Amino acid sequence: MRGSRSPILVETRHTAGNGLFARSVCMPGSLLFLVPPKALMNKMTVKRLYPPNLRVDKTLTAVQLISMHLFVWRPKFDEDSADPFFGPYISILPRDFSSHPLTWLVLSKLNKADDLRMSLLDGLPPSVLAALHRLHTRFWDDWCKVRSFLKTTPSISPMVQMPSNSLEALDAVMDFLWAWLNVNTRCIYYRLKRAKTDPDNLTMCPILDFANHTPVQANMIAVPSNSEIWDAAPVNSIGDGLKFISPDNVKIEENDEILLTYGSHSNKTLFVEYGFVNLLSENRPSPSGEVDVQDLTQKYVFADGQLCEAVRVILVAEGYWGDWTLHSTLDGAQPSWRLITALRLYHFVMAVGSADEDTIQPWRDVVTGKRDWVSCENEQSWRKTVVLLCDMLIERAEKDSAQNKNREDTWARWMSENIQSLWREELFVARAVKECVLRGDEF
Questions:
Q1: pLDDT tens across 384-437, in order?
Q2: Rounded CA separation 296/335 (Å)
Q3: Taking the chain, what is the end-to-end CA distance rounded to the nearest angstrom?
Q4: Are the C-beta atoms of residues 437 and 387 closer than 8 Å to each other?
Q5: From CA 277, how far away is CA 265, in angstroms rounded?
Q6: 3-state class (DSSP) for residue 388
Q7: Distance, CA of 8 to CA of 32 (rounded, Å)
């Protein structure tokens, strides 16, 4: 990175921690760095390190395989990784994820969490906690699969021995959590398969790991590979490698930090997946806010009752049960189509007193686009319900955000500020959606 040909360098600075910085001016469209395919850590490069008869690529997903490899070759204490292939890269990965909320939840479920982390979990918005539980399920499913594989294959390579009894210890869970979080927080999209949506199209990328996130315009972008341009599997089975340039409209000055954007994510997603948020002030709107209202909708709308159960059955069958959200951007706010669709059916069935197939045809016509709405009364009803949900969110956010202040520990204070921003985002989104609904905006 410090060679004469490289326009960027890796440094630790008090303003950014580890980061990528420009050592000279980079004009728009300049090549910043490239990473050859052999240096990338993905399913195709990792599977080559294991005996073919193990068929690791057929048994494990990309996330499971890369996580297993990191787990097996995790550096011990302050030493470097002993992996003869990816050791230098593994050695510079973060060693500690104790501040990540998934770590708190894993320890909580194992009855090992301290009072501070339990209080932080208790202070999370319900929608954030629900998303964190879903992440935990993904992690634990992957751990169970990898643990089972290692138990039946104790000698996965001539250099590695994994006694099966060691896999039941708490240390094994925490070591795999370290590996899994490195994969989950650092993998990026990388075309390896014919299908663009194949879940194995991901990789870990040296150098890029040092780039920090910006919620606004990034000054580094990836160049589309040939396989992406032609929408086909790469000719080389391990892909085409990755190349990064400055955007065509961005000039990078000397000493500027080179930043990337993790995506247009809500703070809920950033917090759950990566362990941080875009901090929000009390008056600054969220650029990409999202609130999951499934808990409130199920509790206060879909209460117990025969007709409610009939509505639930229909929504499940049609794929509209759950994942009900409110959204806001700098350009506007709205309830999700899934929430509107579910509430339209609920209010229609409650009004007519039946969920028979013939009876709900007007609702189906709206879903398929044959008509704009069920009725004027139905539109008024679901809008009133959305306003009710917003009012409950506003009350909850105003109340609970006040409980996450005044922590003494520096790290705890920083994390409390993150949680404050999560509550503020819910508040911003709820107020914005309520305003749009009362104004009569069309969605």
A1: 999 999 999 999 999 876 665 556 678 888 999 999 999 999 999 999 999 999
A2: 14
A3: 49
A4: yes
A5: 10
A6: helix
A7: 7
